[in-house]
Amino acid sequence: MSPRWLVTGAAGMLGQDLVAALAHEDVTAVAADRTALDIADPGRVREMFAAHRPAVVVNCAAWTAVDDAESQEDAALRINGTGPAVLAAACREHGAVLLHVSTDYVFAGDAALPYPEDAPTAPRSAYGRTKLAGERAVLETLPDTGYVVRTAWLYGAGGANFVRTMIRLEGIKDTLDVVDDQRGQPTWTVDLAARLVRLGQAALDGTAPAGVYHGTSAGGTTWCGFTREIFRLLGADPARVRPTTSDAYPRPAPRPAYSVLAHHRFAAAGIEPIRDWRAALDEAFPALLAAERPLISGRPG
């Protein structure tokens, strides 16, 4: 009998691509969006586990409104901290593997070299603190079967994101001022979904040790550099994208100035890390353009 996978947050951008990836594997995938499963409700989680008895749980559910978390930290903590703790407890009871998706915001963002998986955490925002709480709950509850996969700068066809926004703005703005003092790794949700599938399979096979993994694209760029590459793919002049500083766009939550992550543990587990961000964007772009163009008045679809 094929193993059963439970994907929480299945209606989100990453969740959609993960469910699609699992459709090509010899597994049974149960997709649970937030209406089907409140991960912070122990009773609902017990019912879901009793009904489906998953061998692998991938937690894509999260509070991702970074700025709103500054004024609603308790609400964010319920989803980002309590929810993973409840899932971890259920996985321990049922002997299931848990893959929990986390974030670069658990770091201070002041490094000069890519963060290894065991680098000290020091979140500077409420969002980062709540995500770190979820990481700790998973790793403490499931020392042998708990996996934390940190990612960053996600984009995909299945939801609102930076790439789709820039596609839209290119058609209505002569120039764009984009932050050039934050450095990270644009990561396609399709690529991350593929690594989550491989990691879950390796966990069941006993070939990937539990712990922290970094699931971001190779290389790195700034938001300005990212936008210029988007313009290039649109056939637009990248010089229309002008560099500016974070101070020009003050936000309630501080953004990491440097959030490039290293990928040693995927390689050590025999799983190829994600490719360079430019190569991924090239392949992803037609689907992103197709998803955004119907929403753009006056642009051919």
Automatic annotation (TrEMBL):
Coiled coil: none annotated. InterPro entries: dTDP_dehydrorham_reduct (IPR005913), NAD(P)-bd_dom_sf (IPR036291), RmlD-like-bd (IPR029903). CDD domains: dTDP_HR_like_SDR_e. The keyword Oxidoreductase applies. Keywords: NADP, Oxidoreductase. Its EC number is 1.1.1.133. It comes from Streptomyces poriferorum. The keyword Transcription regulation does not apply. Pfam families: RmlD_sub_bind. This is dTDP-4-dehydrorhamnose reductase.
